[in-house]
Amino acid sequence: MENKQKTLKKNSIISLLSLFFQSGYSAVLGLIANLVLTIVLAPEVFGIYILTLSIISFLNYFSDIGLAASLVQKDEVTGDDLRTTFTVQQLLIIILITIGFLLTPVVRSFYDLPSEAMYLYWALLVAFFFSSLKTIPSIKLERQVQFQKIVLVQIVENTVFYIAVSVFALSGMGLMSFAYAVLIRAITGTILIYYISFWLPQIGISKVSLKKLLSFGIPFQTNTLLALVKDDLILLFIGKALGLEALGYIGWAKRWAESPIRMIMDNVNRILFPIFSRMQSEQERVAQLLEKVIRYQTLILAPAFVGMVLLMDRFVDLVPKYSKWEPALPIFYLIVISAFLSSFSSPFTNLFNALGKVKITFKFMVYWTVMSWILIPILTSTNSMIGYPIALIILSLTFIAIIVVAKKYVAFSFIKQIYPGIFSSLFMGVMVYITLFQTSTWILFGLSIATGVISYTLILYLVFKINIMNEVTSFFKYD
């Protein structure tokens, strides 16, 4: 048992470090590519890209009916489990892609899309198929908590995609830039994952295996469906109700505002599910890890969000041809608030799923989905684009109820973990605001960031006796 715990810890640390490295690397590439794309492309074109991604996300829900998550959660996986999952998934994928292609005229006429948008739509459908082939090799690595190997594939995929889409966009290819880039990424990633974690595809369905997998998979996938209806279908609604330009502004604001979540919490949450699943019988260790996650996500996310709110308008002014995104700034500020509050929900939903309490997650997802479709249509009809982030803030307050429920299963401290990061971030915000100049250059912009980093580090150390570097290091010592 002790050796098993040490192996799990070692793999977890390596996986988390790998995921953070991949996030940092991809963030730099993504920042450069996002700047290139949002400078070169009009908000409407960017909105079309967001729209087509949402359509593919809808199809992706039906691709494995929760079988992949069941394989990760199970204590032991057999050859029948792998074969059954692969076969069922491929049958579903073929059906979905066929439906997707047949719906092309409907999608185009409904949103009045140009022909280039259809090529992007078809490219994403083909990439959707290649992505499904990666499922079993990826699951094998996830079960071993060897995310560093998955990260290597993602790094290569992101490098190929960002470089390709930037080069194509600068060449004046518009929407076709995305179409070619997603195909190149999909083919490259599939070849590489099979090289790293080879699995010979096998066809066959075991009724016994399928029944066991679906007992966890269907409730889990139901939650995924609700998340899909709550997030991606809402974007499809907004694209129709407010227009593609408005969707472009919302997509821009959402991507920038949630970038710290994507970089930090997505990586942490990605390994929390398999780790909690392996540790589900060790309540004390689960509580310790949960507290550390809450503590360190606050220490990192709180100053990042405060800094972004204070400096984003200067950033828009400084970047060439970026003034076209000024109408999205109010949306950005509000989504930052909702992103920070909702970040506290993610570790607990992973905890519920790992403990087999999928019904709890399901109930919250039902609430979020129903309220999203009540609040967002009403608020967007009365407040246009700004209604969307207002609804997100209201929904994000649910984290309070999630914490109350989680305390019934695991004894942990919440307020004690978050107040040093929040207090220090607010102090940092005051210092940055005081030193902001009316006119800005890149040098002054850099000085504002430096002011924030120094003031945040000092207040943590002087008031709370927290050395941020030691804290980051200690995150990886959870036994």
Could you walk me through the main structural features you see in this protein, from its secondary elements to its overall organization?
The protein has 2 domains: 1-215, no CATH class; 242-479, no CATH class. It is built from 21 helices and no strands. Helix 16 runs antiparallel to helix 17 (387-396). The two termini are 14 Å apart. It has helices at residues 2-40, 43-61, 67-73, 79-102, 104-111, 115-133, 135-143, 147-170, 176-196, 207-241, 244-257, 259-279, 283-318, 329-342, 346-354, 358-383, 387-396, 399-406, 415-435, 442-464, 468-474. It is mainly alpha-helical. Helices cover 82% and strands 0% of the residues. Its main location: membrane. InterPro entries: Poly_Biosynth_Transport. It is found in: Cell membrane. It is a multi-pass membrane protein. One of its GO terms (cellular component) is plasma membrane.
Features:
479 residues; single chain; globular; mainly alpha
What is the compact description of this entry?
With 479 residues, this protein is mainly alpha-helical.
Radius of gyration: 22 Å
The N- to C-terminal Cα distance equals: 14 Å
What is the helix content? over 70%
Overall body shape:
globular
Mean pLDDT: 80
What is the total domain count?
2
Give a count of the beta strands, DSSP E runs of length 2 or more.
0
What proportion of the residues form beta strands (DSSP E)?
A: under 5%
Question: What ranges have pLDDT less than 50 throughout 5 or more consecutive residues?
Answer: none
Please count the helical segments.
Answer: 21
Q: Output the structural class.
A: mainly alpha
Report the major sheet.
none
Order of helices and strands: HHHHHHHHHHHHHHHHHHHHH
